[in-house]
Design a protein that fits this description.
This protein is mainly β and 335 residues long.
Length: 335
């Protein structure tokens, strides 16, 4: 996805100026280059100003429920241009042969809700300013939805000619690299063609690379604010961290933290990581060093988290059939 505008609203022009097209560097997800090479070329967006003066989210912060009217919600993302959140609703009460039927809903704060795209097949959602980028289990692909026309296109169709299982969650860098997880939870009756549950990187040229094929149902995924690290949650509770090289490729995995049943995640401007802990129904906040800072009760079956609002200081958490918001002292990123 060769886009100059991404959801993270970083200074993409500066990033692209430092890029060099090197086909050899894109043949594998690993590289010997230092991830810190990228940090010098990425500027934080304006809403991250004064982050150092802000205190982390307090354990006493209470979540406010917007609604509990849905079946099962997931994948929230903030749209700065239109000042709305989008999120997926999945119907696990209906047929599951190709995964649950999904709808993309829209939330205009504080509580105005409507259907945005019916029968979307979506789970996790990112955005590049003009399009929603969704992991779509119905077609076992990554899809884009034009925000104006709602037209759907396939962005990532397969890996080495094999269908994915059921792509689950996604992060998109300022450079246009896509990183997504592929567990098998919404595989339905379809065969597992890849023979694994993995993490993938789709580079700016459109080629797909396996980042890690040894993760047991990887789920939530997010980039650090300076985009030098990729975080991935695994079904066994492990949060892994991977260095991201300047060409977008990903280095070797390292254990970062442990969170019970980690689902979707997001980051704030200070580099703290916010993880929806599914079974316990909590929002767990980790420092950039992997230390737990706080844990806040939300609701059973917490699934995902996103920052949004006019100042990017409203945290939206999806949990079970409900939507919950928390005020944050630190601004954060849209997915």
């Amino acid at each position: 996805m060769n886009k100059k505008l991404s959801i993270l609203a970083f200074c993409v022009t500066a990033v692209l100026a430092g890029c060099q097209d090197n086909d050899d560097s894109l043949q594998t997800q690993t590289s010997s280059s230092s991830p810190n090479e990228l940090a010098a070329t990425v500027e934080l967006p304006a809403f991250c100003a004064a982050t150092a003066q802000q205190s982390p989210l307090s354990a006493e912060t209470k979540a406010s429920q917007i609604t509990d009217q849905y079946v099962f919600v997931e994948g929230p993302v903030w749209d700065d241009k239109n000042q709305v959140f989008y999120f997926s609703e999945m119907d696990f009460d209906g047929p599951q042969d190709s995964g649950p039927r999904s709808i993309i809903h829209r939330l205009r704060l504080p509580d105005q809700l409507d259907v945005f795209i019916d029968n979307s097949g979506s789970n996790g959602i990112a955005i590049d300013g003009q399009r929603l980028i969704a992991t779509t289990h119905d077609s076992q692909t990554v899809s884009s939805y034009d925000i104006a026309s709602k037209k759907r296109d396939i962005v990532v169709s397969d890996f080495e000619g094999k269908h994915f299982n059921s792509p689950n969650d996604i992060a998109v860098s300022a450079r246009g690299d896509m990183y997504f997880t592929d567990p098998d939870w919404q595989l339905g009756t379809r065969p597992k063609q890849t023979g694994m549950t993995g993490v993938y990187w789709r580079d700016r040229q459109g080629d797909v690379h396996l980042v890690d094929g040894e993760r047991g149902n990887p789920n939530g995924i997010s980039l650090s604010p300076d985009q030098t690290f990729l975080y991935v949650g695994e079904n066994n509770g492990t949060i892994s961290r991977y260095p991201v090289n300047q060409d977008g490729s990903v280095g070797e995995r390292a254990d970062f933290a442990h969170v019970p049943e980690p689902d979707g995640m997001a980051v704030d401007c200070a580099g703290n990581i916010y993880i929806a802990s599914h079974g316990p129904g909590k929002l767990v906040m980790l420092s950039p060093e992997g230390q737990q800072l706080t844990s806040i009760d939300i609701a059973p079956r917490a699934t995902n988290v996103s920052f949004g609002g006019a100042e990017h200081k409203t945290i939206l958490v999806t949990a079970g059939g409900g939507l919950y918001t928390l005020p944050s002292p630190i601004a954060g990123f849209p997915y």
